[in-house]
From TrEMBL:
Naturally occurring in which organism (per UniProt): Proteus mirabilis
Top-level lineage group: Bacteria
Stretches that traverse the bilayer: none
InterPro entries for the chain: SBP_5, SBP_5_dom
Name this polypeptide is given: ABC transporter substrate-binding protein
Source taxonomy: Bacteria, Pseudomonadati, Pseudomonadota, Gammaproteobacteria, Enterobacterales
């Protein structure tokens, strides 16, 4: 628990709140009960989904609570590891792209609250308003690509094989995120339809981060840095081994060229050149099917009705406590 108190030495406008008590509650059910009992007044979904949409909708229907969602702020995606034995194949990665029913995620899991992402960055993100390759849900095409790559479905079996080896992949996600588990299970079902066995592994956040650093995954859930850091900070992290993006791209033949593009676009004063480099970078990643874009995420806030002026800052990592106040009795 972290107890933050108002400092009398602050030079700016003083907020209405005199302090904020920050409680870390990893268990989602305990968090929900704490809100309902009044032990906490606000759940703010910065950098993750602390409650699923069913819980969000149930709270929205109660007059004791209020809910808000920010504008689309970041990109949800799945990183495909180009360094692993199976996903090193571009055709396999493209097949997985075509196998994902994104509309099923947007409607079935997120209840229509987020829009399907056909590209890694939304066109509203700076330097990203251009046409690039997209993959629309086509399970038949996915199956055809796997056949071309030698992954065949033996009679009486449900998982494809190549030279006696099953087409089995590992997807890692943060178990503390309510939505990631549901998305992983839907992907598992989508892949099963084309003969791909997907092992879903939910881990505590530190184990999840360690795995992305080591590259010990075939697929991993990813959330971009979001506004205002996309795309610059997001692509800058592609060059750092600690990120799943680096591991996902490491096996690409043009990885060194991609990193050089990033290095140049971050420092060039030429606006036209910067735009050209961003387009080349994201087009190459799309052509090589390194990411499966899912939806454009929104930050959620759930709070008790006596709390007022709850809103969002441009960054998903900032909570504007300075604007909040409790309703006068």
């Amino acid at each position: 628990m972290l107890n933050l108190r108002l400092t009398p030495h602050y030079w700016g406008q003083k907020p209405a709140l005199t302090g904020v008590m920050w409680r870390v509650i990893p268990d989602r059910q305990t968090m929900l009960l704490s809100l309902q009992k009044g032990d906490i007044q606000l759940i703010f979904g910065a950098d993750g989904d602390m409650l699923d949409m069913d819980s969000f909708d149930a709270l929205m229907a109660s007059d004791k609570f209020k809910t808000q969602m920010s504008a689309p702020i970041a990109s949800r995606a799945i990183v495909l590891n180009s360094s692993r034995p199976i996903t090193s194949s571009q055709k396999v990665r493209q097949a997985l792209e075509y196998a994902v029913d994104k509309e099923g995620i947007a409607q079935g899991i997120l209840a229509g609250s987020e829009k399907v992402a056909d590209t890694l960055m939304a066109r509203s993100v700076p330097y990203c308003d251009f046409d690039s390759p997209t993959y629309i849900y086509q399970p038949e095409k996915a199956a055809s690509l796997l056949e071309e790559e030698g992954w065949l479905l033996p009679a009486g079996k449900t998982v494809r094989e190549k030279q006696g080896k099953p087409l089995q992949l590992l997807l890692s996600y943060n178990v503390n995120n309510a939505v990631e588990k549901e998305i992983a299970e839907l992907l598992q079902d989508d892949f099963k339809k084309i003969g791909v066995a997907l092992t879903v592994l939910g881990e505590e956040k530190q184990a999840f981060l360690d795995r992305q650093k080591s590259g010990d995954f075939d697929l991993q859930y990813s959330l971009s840095w979001g506004t205002p850091y996309d795309p610059a900070s997001f692509v800058s992290s592609f060059r750092i081994p600690a990120h799943a993006d680096y591991q996902g791209q490491k096996g690409l033949a043009n990885k060194a060229q991609l990193d050089a593009m990033i290095g140049e676009l971050l420092i060039t004063p030429d606006e036209h050149r910067r735009q050209t480099l961003y387009q080349r970078l994201f087009t190459s990643l799309a052509e090589q099917a390194v990411y499966i874009p899912l939806t454009y995420s929104r930050t959620k806030a759930i709070y008790r009705s006596e709390l007022e002026n709850v809103g969002f800052n441009p960054s998903q990592y900032e909570i504007p406590f300075e604007k909040m106040r409790f309703k006068a009795e």
